[in-house]
Each structure stands twice: as C-alpha cells, then as structure tokens.
Amino acid sequence: MTQPTFSQKLQAGSTFPDISVTDLHTKTHVLGQPGEGKDWQLVVVYRGQHCPICTKYLNKLQKHKNKLMDTGVDIIAVSADSKEQLESHLDDLSVDFTLGYGLTEENMKALGVYISDPRSEKETDHPFAEPALFVVDQSGIIRIIDISNAPFSRPDVDILVDGLQWLRKPDNDYPVRGTHA
C-alpha cells in the first residue's frame, strides 16, 4: 500500500478556482461560471463512466434540473474521463445538463478532491476524482462544499435541491456556513 499524499481542501466562502473543461460539442466551460442565464452553478464532480453509482446520481439529478434552473442554479457535471469514455457513458445517462470531461490531476488537486487510482484496467485507465459537489454563487464564491472519498457517500439530491430553493429566497439571507477553518 502506498503512503497517502494530502491535498489542500477548498474552504467555504473562498473563491472557486479557475478550471476549464470541454463538453462533447467541443465548447469550453469555466467551472463556477453559470450559463443558461443563471447566476449560481452546481458543479458536480463524478468518478467517471466506470461508476454505476455516479450514473444513478446524475440521472437522479436530471429529475430535479427544472427546479434548480427555476431557482437560478445552472448544473455542470465533470470527470477525468476522456471524450470517448464520456461518449460511451451517454448510453447509460438520461441527462441534458452540461457534461464536461478531461479533468486533469492538477485540476483535481486545485479542487481539493480525493483522487484514486483504478483497481484494474477494467475499471478505467487513469486516476480519477472521487465525488464532490460545489455550489458557486454569482461572485464566484463557494457557498456549499461536499467532498467524499467514496462513491456511496454524497449529498441526497432531494435534500440538496430543497435546501438550495430555500437558500435562494432573499428573505432567508442565509450566510455561507462553515467558514471557521
């Protein structure tokens, strides 16, 4: 067993790092910069096509896309997969939000996500990010962070969406939480 290396984790209330990914239409997307006329962005980092739990999670997120968009929250999901792996993954995905590919190890380290090596070539052919989720506001500030080191530990989509709907109501004036390091 190799000795683990430790990564620097992003902090709630900090500025989201400048990271770009490409979608299947060769369009470049800067993570944390929403599209579709929205002012916040939900950035979902997933393990890749080899992960059936990721596939299930992304498909469930699709069922809440309209609620998120109505709340002003754009969605992008990204992985370290290649374009070919993402194209193959589309056979199992039923989503129409943006999917980006090609996260590099440098990108993953900048995001502070846990990085794993494949168990075998059957799994995948490259190091990949474990699940993470970031909600970034119109100023590029990280409002919510969830970083996991296992595929089965991630926020419940129903609770997340309900929480974002509540958070976006101006009368609630909810601050960024967890800002004490």
UniProtKB/TrEMBL annotation:
Entry-linked Pfam families: AhpC-TSA
Superkingdom of the source species: Bacteria
Lineage: Bacteria, Pseudomonadati, Pseudomonadota, Gammaproteobacteria, Alteromonadales
InterPro entries: AhpC/TSA, Thioredoxin-like_sf, Thioredoxin_domain
Occurrences of domain Thioredoxin (ranges): 10-169
Protein name: Redoxin family protein
Database matches in PROSITE patterns: THIOREDOXIN_2 (PS51352)
